[in-house]
Write a structure and sequence with these properties.
This protein is α+β, with helices and mostly antiparallel strands. Helix content is about 15%, strand content about 20%. The strands form three sheets. A five-stranded antiparallel beta sheet has the order 3-5-10-7-8, with no helix packed on it. It has a four-stranded antiparallel beta sheet with strand order 4-11-6-9, with no helix packed on it. The chain has a two-stranded antiparallel sheet with strand order 1-2. A hairpin with a 6-residue loop joins strand 1 and strand 2. The termini are far apart.
């Protein structure tokens, strides 16, 4: 029989506590005769106590009972100290109080924000459902109560315009009289030069100075001023020391025309001899191509010189001026116009 271990048992280590229980091996029976020699006997097992449940002996270092499976005394550890339990309870209470305080602060902030910033809700007018009329026939039915209002045509009242009384002449504003100053050399009555039913239209370059004796050109003015339909401008020619001019003005009609008379404006007292030809003007006034067709004496501001052409058509007409009037050094021809 195995000797019992002392009552006091050492507390097992953590490694021993984790190890599985070891079942005691019973002594082997005597080997039969003729069997090989038995192995050396196992060492004696020191008892560590007995099971608190069934009373079975426990070996040293055995943590579990092999009979009932109960734990050896002291196997489940020591008792928990009150200090550790108090620390756990205090920490739990501290965390709970912190959670309560945080929840209260969150609720207070949310309530203050909801009071100070209340969202404005847009007022939406209630939607009145439109009644759906039942489908009717194609011809609308007018209620009897309002038929007399629909069948009548509206009457439009158009006021008659009031008759306007004429304003008496005494109340009308008077038109101021505008005085137009007269020109220094007014245009004579009748058709102006360059217009008229029987007048021959002249080009702007129709007039030219006729200078067969080649006098200095500085003695003459612009010939186009004699056909510009402006009586305030004129062609001029200077006389020599003896009062001689011996030059004139040629009018080129650009084509042969029947010419009945000339209308001439110029210096009073001037005598003009008129020659004509069917073509271009000859270089000399004594050329037989020139035909004497008339003359003019400017006894007034404007004269009409009738031409005798014998039915011939004229293209070039020369106004020859032999001499200037007495005490006149420069003569003027303001306007020349040809008529059929």
């Amino acid at each position: 029989m195995v000797a019992e271990a002392p009552a006091a048992q050492a507390e097992p280590s953590s490694a021993e506590a984790a190890a599985p229980p070891v079942r005691a091996v019973p002594p082997e029976s005597a080997a039969p005769s003729g069997a090989p020699a038995a192995a050396a006997p196992a060492p004696a097992v020191t008892s560590a106590g007995s099971c608190s449940s069934c009373g079975a002996p426990l070996a040293s270092g055995q943590n579990w009972c092999l009979e009932c499976g109960s734990a050896a005394p002291g196997r489940l550890g020591r008792r928990t100290s009150w200090r550790l339990a108090g620390s756990v309870v205090g920490l739990t209470l501290l965390l709970a109080s912190g959670a309560v305080a945080a929840t209260y602060a969150a609720l207070s902030s949310s309530s203050h924000r909801s009071v100070s910033h209340q969202p404005q809700v847009a007022q939406v007018a209630p939607v009145v459902p439109t009644p759906t009329l039942p489908a009717t026939a194609s011809t609308p039915v007018t209620p009897r109560r309002h038929r007399h209002l629909i069948s009548r045509k509206p009457r439009l009242h158009i006021p008659k315009p009031k008759s306007l009384k004429p304003t008496p002449p005494s109340l009308l504003p008077k038109t101021p009289k505008v005085t137009v100053p007269k020109a220094a050399n007014p245009v004579p009555a009748g058709n102006p030069v360059g217009t008229g039913r029987k007048q021959i239209v002249l080009d702007t370059n129709a007039a030219s100075t006729y200078n067969p004796y080649a006098f200095p050109v500085t003695r003459y003015g612009d010939p186009s001023l004699a056909t510009d339909a402006d009586p305030t401008t004129a062609w001029t020619a200077q006389a020599d020391a003896n009062g001689r001019i011996d030059s004139g003005l040629v009018i080129d009609l650009k084509a042969p025309h029947k010419v009945g008379f000339l209308r001439i404006q110029g210096t009073r007292g001037l005598s003009i001899q008129i020659y004509g030809t069917q073509g271009q003007a000859p270089a000399s006034i004594t050329d037989p191509a020139w035909v004497h067709v008339g003359s003019a004496s400017l006894t007034k501001r404007q004269v009409r010189a009738t031409l005798t052409t014998g039915g011939q058509r004229l293209q070039s007409i020369a106004l020859w001026i032999a001499a200037a009037p007495p005490s006149v050094s420069t003569i003027k021809i303001a306007e020349v116009a040809a008529f059929r």
